[in-house]
Amino acid sequence: MSISISHPTQIVKGEIWLTSSKSESNRALIIQALCNDDFKIDNLSISDDTRILKVLLDKISSQKEVVRADNDGVENFDEDTDNYRQTLSAGLAGTVMRFLTAFLAIKNGDTVLTGEHRMKERPIRVLVDVLRQLGANIEYMEKEGFPPLKITGVALEGGKITIDGSISSQYISALLMIAPKLKNGIQIEFSGEIISKPYINMTIEMMRYFGVSVRWEGSTIIVDAGNYKAKNSSIEADWSAASYWYSMVALAKEADITLYGLKQQSLQGDAVVQEIYKKMGVKTEFVNGGIRLTKICHPELVEGLIFEYDFTNCPDIAQTVAVTCAALNISAKLTGLKTLRIKETDRIIAIQTELNKLGFNVEVEEDDIIIHSTTSLRTESSEVKQSHSDKKIASFLAMTSVKTYNDHRMAMAFAPLALLGKITIEDENVVAKSYPNFWKDLEKVGFNV
Question: Active-site residue 38, yes or no?
Fold first, then answer.
């Protein structure tokens, strides 16, 4: 169902308890499942992705008969004479599919791991090939190189493997987390440039927190065989989710927002959002329990400014920044977006399509997004220019709706445009994948939803 959003004053003020990081939550759940002893995870994400992973891990652990339950990701269950067998669905959750592919490769029993239609279009060959090199028993059930997979868990020896550093960090994290359970641990040598390195570092730091020996030696990560040690943990709020609030502050007339749950020393690569938005007039101040965002004057936003940024290490905030740049009439070049092609949708094309629908001038060059400032909006007076710009944007917002392509980040990246005029976004429920309370939080700061 579509949702319409507007803001009567364009003044955004309030306090928000920000949603938890699903990236940290999902790693913590896998480590918990691999640990011999249980431990407590505080502030676990309530996102669909984390909920599905928790349900599936519980089912794998219990190995009890269940009935079909579409809403919790479990499709069916049966047993044959000797082996436990089940079919599990990751839905649209990429981390669930990748983390469980590695996890199930070392767990006793036969499992069919599948997902929704889009998941069956997302490649997984690289991870499967590496696991097979380590001795895993994995078969493709439909299209070669794509889910669904039939996985028969076996004991893996481990050892040295070589991986292209440009592959998804989720593949690497999936391998790292099971590595201590392999007889010889694992040594991952990277060839080429490593992308999304902060996500790999997040995995490593969390593994170390739970007592595993992990170290970088040149271009190689070495994980010793061993056991995770039970230790209570708490999940930080989500810096990816914070990016939408940065965009709102940048587009508002006035803004003063406090987001609770974020840390100055964060494991999340998307914490770089605070540096990116300095140029767009957003000041970040760390306060007790979180951050305070305020709108300040922005002398760098001068005629002819070109914003350029490589999002290789923080691809999840690229959509938000693209929308902000377009709305602020900033020329921009966003690079390092290769991994966006194989997300919930082709995010590069989706951003171009929806921004162009709203009257912005956006091009795609290979995997780069190019945003052109709308020169027709420029006048002698910057104040008049802004007024004309807002009116033109508002007219386009009123005439069309934003398509989400089953992508939570599309919905939330475009929502801040409601500060420039009423906007309609298709599929309000899509935000549940990572930030279920997003629309409710908007209402807390004066949005009409």
Answer: no
